[in-house]
């Protein structure tokens, strides 16, 4: 059990029509913990990730952030999304706004910061993700890896309690994947609470405190990376790893 739980899912269920995508999910993520969620396609990983900031409402069960149930809607939901940042496969940057404006916008709109204050914070974060020199550019002038790092800076700009990553490198060319994972590794070292859905097993091995393996909407294993990768307990995990680790 995590010492200081930040995110808790208790008996969470979710259906899409007749499809039962999350089945009695129980998961606790402690403050400062990095939990990597892996599993075959269609196992419910992304849906799980999206329920934590209510991008997907659940059918039953409870999700707590910092001991409080997730708000239903309205202003408190917007606040929640500021506290639980999300980085998607697609970067979702505003094409007509500069990198600096992309990172500053929500700080001004949601956090109520003054423009100068927001821009100063944005520059600091662009420095952190290695993009300080690109503040004046537009998304189309950047590579996919750079755009994803801008998206991470934008999420960090809200000073979130936790960050969710939904397959953040799956839309990237192979040579750009590492620059994004390196930023994520640094965040992990800095103590950011992270839930990461990914196919990058090297990242799971090196940066995760725990690996959660999902199949058919259930959590099959939840263990330390070393244990999971060297001695998986379930046949599902053994089968999954044998397919993935051969490549």
TrEMBL record:
<dbReference type="Pfam" id="PF00005">
    <property type="entry name" value="ABC_tran"/>
</dbReference>
<dbReference type="InterPro" id="IPR030679">
    <property type="entry name" value="ABC_ATPase_HisP-typ"/>
</dbReference>
<keyword id="KW-0067">ATP-binding</keyword>
<dbReference type="InterPro" id="IPR027417">
    <property type="entry name" value="P-loop_NTPase"/>
</dbReference>
<dbReference type="InterPro" id="IPR003593">
    <property type="entry name" value="AAA+_ATPase"/>
</dbReference>
<feature type="domain" description="ABC transporter">
    <location>
        <begin position="7"/>
        <end position="241"/>
    </location>
</feature>
<keyword id="KW-0547">Nucleotide-binding</keyword>
<keyword id="KW-0472">Membrane</keyword>
<protein>
    <submittedName>
        <fullName>Glutamate ABC transporter ATP-binding protein</fullName>
    </submittedName>
</protein>
<dbReference type="InterPro" id="IPR017871">
    <property type="entry name" value="ABC_transporter-like_CS"/>
</dbReference>
<keyword id="KW-0029">Amino-acid transport</keyword>
<dbReference type="InterPro" id="IPR003439">
    <property type="entry name" value="ABC_transporter-like_ATP-bd"/>
</dbReference>
<dbReference type="InterPro" id="IPR050086">
    <property type="entry name" value="MetN_ABC_transporter-like"/>
</dbReference>
<comment type="similarity">
    <text>Belongs to the ABC transporter superfamily.</text>
</comment>
<dbReference type="GO" id="GO:0005524">
    <property type="term" value="F:ATP binding"/>
</dbReference>
<keyword id="KW-1003">Cell membrane</keyword>
<keyword id="KW-0813">Transport</keyword>
């Amino acid at each position: 059990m995590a010492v200081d739980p930040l995110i808790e899912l208790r008996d969470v269920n979710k259906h899409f029509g007749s499809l039962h995508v999350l089945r009695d999910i129980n998961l606790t993520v402690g403050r400062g913990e990095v939990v990597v969620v892996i599993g075959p396609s269609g196992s419910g990983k992304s849906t799980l990730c999206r329920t934590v900031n209510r991008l997907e409402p659940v059918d039953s069960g409870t999700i707590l952030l910092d001991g409080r149930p997730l708000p239903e809607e309205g202003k408190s939901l917007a606040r929640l999304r500021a506290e639980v940042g999300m980085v998607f496969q697609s970067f979702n940057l505003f094409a007509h706004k500069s990198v600096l404006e992309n990172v500053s916008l929500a700080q001004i709109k949601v956090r109520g910061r003054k423009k100068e204050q927001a821009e100063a914070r944005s520059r600091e974060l662009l420095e952190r993700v290695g993009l300080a020199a690109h503040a004046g550019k537009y998304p189309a002038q950047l590579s996919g890896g750079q755009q994803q790092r801008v998206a991470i800076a934008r999420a960090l700009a809200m000073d979130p309690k936790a960050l969710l990553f939904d397959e953040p490198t799956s839309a990237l060319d192979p040579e750009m994947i590492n620059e994004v994972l390196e930023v994520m590794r640094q965040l992990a070292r800095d103590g950011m609470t992270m839930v990461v859905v990914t196919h990058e097993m090297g990242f799971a091995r090196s940066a995760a405190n725990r690996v959660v393996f999902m199949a058919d909407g259930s959590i099959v294993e939840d263990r330390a990376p070393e244990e999971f990768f060297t001695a998986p307990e379930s046949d599902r995990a053994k089968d999954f790893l044998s397919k993935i680790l051969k490549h």
